Amino acid sequence: MQQRPGSQTASTRILVGVSTKMYLGYRDSLDWLERLRHEVDTRPALAAGRVVPFVIPSFPVLPAAARLLAGSPVLLGAQNCGWADGPWTGEVAPSMLAELGVRIVEIGHAERRRHFNEDEAMVSLKVRAADDAGLTPLLCVGEPDSGQPAGAADFVYRQIESAVDGDWELTGRLTIAYEPVWAIGTAEPAAAAYVSDVVQRLRTQLALAGVRELPVIYGGSAKPGLLPTLDGVSGLFLGRFAHDPANFGAVLDEAFRLDNALLLDEGFPAAGTATDTAMDGHAPPWS
User: Fold this and answer.
1) Model pLDDT, residue 225
2) 275 domain residue, yes or no
3) How do residues 129-154 score in pLDDT, each as one tens digit?
4) pLDDT (0 to 100) of residue 266
5) 249 belongs to a structural domain
6) Which one, out of 66, 139, 226, 270, has a CA that is 20 to 30 A from the CA of 184?
7) What is the CATH number of the domain that holds 23?
8) DSSP notation for 115-149
């Protein structure tokens, strides 16, 4: 059976994003963003299709990044946020991120959980604060050690349940980045069959809670060539492999081919031949 990303329907968006973490300096970040925008601009069909690119640079870069990306289909994200406005020295309020043009905010990455002691309660506060500010939380989840898909899916389900604090309606406004902790920073991603199995089991568990339309993208040494081998996955969250913008462009091409194949299979026009409908400002930007 030919594999497809997402929930197997033509309404599915395929998300392709990248975080720079702290690898690039300020000037290098701007140069990288200009080259990445060129990769997107040379693929004009992206503007009318269901492939959604997003980038998440360092905090100081956000204002300049918003200007550089203006008029492009690339969505701007932030790597973290605080859990409230007010007297929190050194934190960044979700409301300020929204003012800067940020649409997505990464929450609960394994590095923040491990090195900055962010527990499930703090992750939940941040998810709620981001949602209240009109941002889409990109909730990072993943099991710490390699094991069986069933155990991994259970672990991830509990992380999501805790992050929404039992409010399953909130999942309609989030996106999940499934990043097995043991695969982050390695030479190769987790095996495609393993990722697909975990995500499909996770979707089954979420469906029992009434959640059926939750995007789940894969991260963890993701790179070109992986996306077409995954089943039930809504896209990729890239890291250092996309610090070469050409690799980002290659993944966009893979996503676009998959999207067109899915549309044609279901009798819809290929991407780029019709425009999407308007979006609710508080819905995820790829709804």
Assistant:
1) 96
2) no
3) 999 999 999 999 999 999 999 999 99
4) 53
5) yes
6) 66
7) 3.20.20.70
8) HS---HHHHHHHHHHHHHTT-EEEEEE--SS---H
- The angle at the Cα of 117, spanning 115 to 121, to the nearest 5 degrees, equals 145
Q: Identify whether 283 is part of a domain.
A: no
One-letter amino acid at 20 equals T
Contact 94, 133 (CB under 8 A): yes
Structure confidence at residue 107 (pLDDT):
98
Return the structure tokens found at 77. 């994200």
Round to whole Å and give the CA distance between 12 and 255.
Answer: 12
Tokens of 51: 């492939």
Q: What is the pLDDT of residue 287?
A: 66
Taking 70 as the pLDDT cut, the residues of the chain under it are 1-11, 47-48, 262-281, 287
Distance CA 9, CA 129 (A): 31
Tokens of 168: 């399953």
Domain count for the chain: 1
- The pair phi, psi for residue 177, each rounded to 5°, is -105, 105
Type of residue numbered 224: P
Q: How far apart are CA 135 and CA 97, in angstroms?
A: 8
Catalytic residue among 106, 118, 161, 179: 179
Catalytic residue among 109, 118, 143, 254: 109
Report the alpha-carbon distance of residue 280 to residue 287 in Å, rounded: 8
Residue 188 a catalytic site member: no
Is 282 considered catalytic here?
A: no
**Full residue range of the structural domain in which residue 207 is found:** 14-265
